[in-house]
Design goal:
This protein is of the alpha+beta class and 167 residues long. The protein folds into two domains: 107 residues, 2-Layer Sandwich (Alpha-Beta Plaits), CATH 3.30.70; 48 residues, no CATH class. The protein has four helices and five strands. It is extended, with a radius of gyration of 24 Å.
Amino acid sequence: MIETENKDTQDISPKLYELGYLLLPQIAESEVGNAVLELKQEVEKRGGTIMEEGEVGMRALAYTVSTVEEHKRKDHNNAYFGWFKFTLLPANAEDLRLGLVATRNVIRSLIMKTDPTPAPRILSVRKATIDTLPLVESITKKEKEVGEPLTDNAVAELDKEIEQMLA
C-alpha cells in the first residue's frame, strides 16, 4: 500500500514518482510498446504526466516469479523490465497501484516516490594499490612510504584529500 498523507494536511501539488515494472515474457516484441503505452495511460488517466523513461528490455529474473493465467500457475524466469518517472497527485497514487495490479500484462510493479534532484556523484578510493591507481600521486607516494596496501584509515585520509582537491 502506498502511504498517502493525512486528509487534513494533504499536499495538492504533484509529486515525482518512479514506476518499475515487469511484463510477461510471452508478449511479442512488437507488442511490448503497446503494453508500455497501457501503463502510461493508467498514469495519465489519473492526471499524471510522464517525465522520463528507460529502455524496455528482456531480463533474466533473480528468482522465479509465478502468475496465474487461465486458472493455471505459470512460472517466469525472464520478463521485460522497464521504468519511467512521472508526476502525480499523492491522493491518486494508491488508485494507480490498484489499476496496475489489474493490468493484464504486468507480472510485478513498484511505485516509488523519488527526489527530483539527481543523486550526487561520490568519489571514493577503496583498497588502493600502486597497480590500481598509478595516476594519483598522493596515493602512490603514501604506499611507497608504507610499502603495502593502504589501511582503512589511510584510505579515509586520502578520500578527504581528494575531496578537497575536487572542491
